[in-house]
Amino acid sequence: MGMLVPSRSSSVKLRMSKTKTAFFCQNCGTQSAKWIGKCPSCGEWNSFVEEVVSRDDKKPSGFSTKKKKSKPRLISDLQTDTKQRIPILDQELHRVLGGGLVPGSLILFGGEPGIGKSTLMLQVALRQLNLSVLYVSGEESEEQIRMRVERLGMDNPRCYVLMETELDTILVHLEDVQPNLVIIDSIQTLQSSDIDSAPGSISQVRDCTTRLMKFAKETHTPVFLIGHITKEGTLAGPKVLEHMVDTVLQFEGDRHHIYRLLRSTKNRFGSTNELGIYEMQGTGLREVANPSEILIHTQSEQLSGSAIAATMEGLRPLLIEIQALVSTAVYGTPQRNTTGFDIRRLNMLLAVLEKRSGFRLGMKDVFLNIAGGMRLEDPAMDLAVISAVLSSNEDIPVPANYCFAGEVGLSGEIRPVPRIDQRINEAMKLGMEKIFVSKHSKGLQEVGKGIQIVAVGKVEELFSELFG
Ligand code: TYD
Ligand code: MG
User: Which end of the chain is more exposed for a tag (fewer CB within 10 A), N or C?
Assistant: First the structure.
C-alpha cells in the first residue's frame, strides 16, 4: 500500500508514520485486525474491506497545529460560557434544531439521493443574510450550483461556494474565509490526506468528520455535513457517524410526492420530537407552516376506505387522510401493503379486528396509504386506520368531516392518546363535525365546544357509531 500523500497545505503538519491497515465493515463500521467473512456486530456477510490507516492513532489529528490545553472547570463557570443560538430564518429547520443553531455544533443531514438535501442547504445558505456562509460542494459543478441558485431566486452576497474534495485544502480555505456557517456537500466525497483509502470509505468518512468536528469546536462555527444514505449500504453509511455528531437530521419523503419531512433522530441541543414539513416546488422547498393544509389538498369526494386521523408531530397537530383498500384476495395468500405506515402495525390491527371483533379479513388483500407521501408513526392513527379498513370492507364512506384520534390495544380496546385537547382544537379549526376518541381520555369536558366528541371504548362501538 502507498505512502502517505504529502499534504498541499502549509498549515497542516506532515506526519510520517508506518503504514497501518485495518479491516472495516462497510455496513456498520466495525473494525477488525483480520479479514472476517461475517461481521460480528451487524451480521452482514462479506462486508469487510481493508483500508489504510496511516495515521498514528495516539497523536490527535487536529485541524490546526495549535495545541489546546484542557483543564477541569467548575460547572457553574461553564454556564457563563454558553453562547447564543444562531436563529435560522427557515422556520421548519429552526424548530427541528431545537430553536436555532448552536455555535460549534456538527450536524449530519442525511437522506436518500435526490430527496432535496442540496436544495434545502443551499436555500438556507442563501436566505441567511446575517451570516457569511461557505458551501463546499464535492458533487456539483459551478454551473450546476449557479443554475440551482437561479432556480431558487435568492441571493446572499456573503455566501461563498467552493468546489473541492481535499479536506486539507478545505480547512485552509475555512481559515481564510472564516465563515459563520459551513455546509459540506457531501461528507462521502471528502478526502483526508491522513488516510489512504478511497473517499466514502469508513475510515475516510470517520477521519474527515473528526477533523471537521475539531474545526467546529475550536472556532465555534456550526458545520452541516450532508450524507447520503443508501439502502444497500455500499457507501460507508452515515450511520457510522451518528455517535460522533451533535445532531442527526433526516430528510425523508417519497420522491414522487411533493412533501418532504425533516426530523431529528438525535439532538444534543433539543428534543427529537419536532417535525419539519416542506413542499418541493419548482423554485425550491417551501416551508409548510400550517401542516393541516396538506389535508385540504388531498381531500377528494366521498369514497369508502378513507378516514382522517388527528395526529401530533412533535408539538404540532396534523390532520392527515388515511386510505385503505380491502378486496378479496385473488391469489392464495392475501397481500398486505402499506405506504407511509408501519406494516407490522397494520398486521396487528387486522389481527385485532379478526380475533377480537370478528371481522373476516383473513382472506382479504389490504392496502393502506397515508396521503401525500408522508411517513408517520403516531399510534393515535390506529383508530383512523381501522375506520378506513372497515369503511372499505363495508363499502360505506366515512363522512369527510369526521376525524379520529385513538390507539387500539391488543384486546380491541380504544386507548387514550396524549395531547387530546390540541387534536380536538385542530379538528375544530378545520371545520370537522365529529371527532372519535377513547372514552378513557381525560379532560374532554374542557374542550371542543364547537365539535361533537364521540367517546368509544371498543372497536365494536366504533363500528356501530359509523356504520351501525
Ligand atoms: P437535490 O437537492 O439535488 O437532492 P439531493 O441533494 O438530496 O440528492 O434535489 C434533487 C431534486 O429536487 C431534483 O429531482 C429536482 C428537484 N428540485 C425541484 O423540484 N425544485 C427545485 O427548485 C430544485 C432546486 C430541485
Ligand atoms: Mg445533492
Answer: C
Cell of 187: 461528507
Report the b/e string of 394-422 with b at 16+ CB within 10 A.
Answer: beebbebebbbbbbbbeebbbbbbeebbb
- Out of 155-164, 224-233, 325-334, 425-434, pick the least confident: 224-233
Q: Residue 316 forms beta bridges with which residues?
A: 313
Ligand 1, atom nearest to 186 Cα: 6
How far, in Å, is the centroid of ligand 2 from the Cα of 280?
14
Round to whole Å and give the CA distance between 307 and 466.
11
The CB density around residue 25, as the number of other CB atoms within 10 Å, is: 25
Q: Are residues 241 and 262 in the same domain?
A: yes
Structural domain including 273 reads 85-289
Q: Among residues of the chain, what percentage have pLDDT more than 70?
A: 88
pLDDT digits (tens, 9 = 90+) for 260-289: 989 888 899 888 878 888 999 999 999 988
- Please check whether residue 2 lies inside any domain of the structure: no
Q: How many domains does the chain have?
A: 3
Residue 90 Cα to ligand 1 midpoint, Å, equals 17
Residue 202 belongs to a domain = yes
Nearest ligand 1 atom, CA 121? 2
| Coil/strand/helix, residue 456 | strand
Are 222 and 182 spatial neighbours (Cβ–Cβ below 8 Å)?
Answer: yes
Closest CA to 187 of 118, 252, 126, 130: 118
